[in-house]
Amino acid sequence: QVQPVESGGGLVQVGGSLRLSCAAPGQSFVRYTVGWFRPAPGKEREFVTAIRWSGGGTFYADSVKGRYTLSKDYAKNTLYLDMKNLRPEDTGVYYCAAGTGTIASQIHRQSEYDYWGQGTQVTVSS
Question: Residue-wise over 95-121: b if at least 16 C-beta within 10 A, else e?
């Protein structure tokens, strides 16, 4: 099992950028799909993006395509989420999660993820 740990949140103005990190100190993401979720109206959390750590695809919600980019540092076992052109509706606690599910059609479901971090706050001010 792994314990994701998020960092990098903060306060940014509309149109600004932030980088979030998700690490698993002393553990490895190699067997996992690692994703990001955030709160959404009427939902507990909504899918933002995910990546299969050992290859096979990166997935983005339509609302963040073209603005958010995932990247991996294998040596540091860390996932980075680069967010640009941020909007007020991007505000929320961003959670990193890891799961062993790999089916593309299911990758957006919270139930596919077994291990969750504590979250990091992103606030976009206008």
Answer: bbbbbebeeeeebbebebbebbbebbe
Give tens-digit pLDDT for 31-60. Answer: 999 999 999 888 889 999 999 998 878 999
Alpha-carbon span 2 to 44, nearest angstrom: 22
For 93, half-sphere exposure in the C-beta direction (CA atoms, 13 angstrom radius) is 9
Tell me which DSSP letter residue 66 carries: T
First to last CA, the chain: 40
Q: Which pLDDT score, from 0 to 100, does residue 44 have?
A: 82
Q: Report the greatest alpha carbon distance in the chain.
A: 40
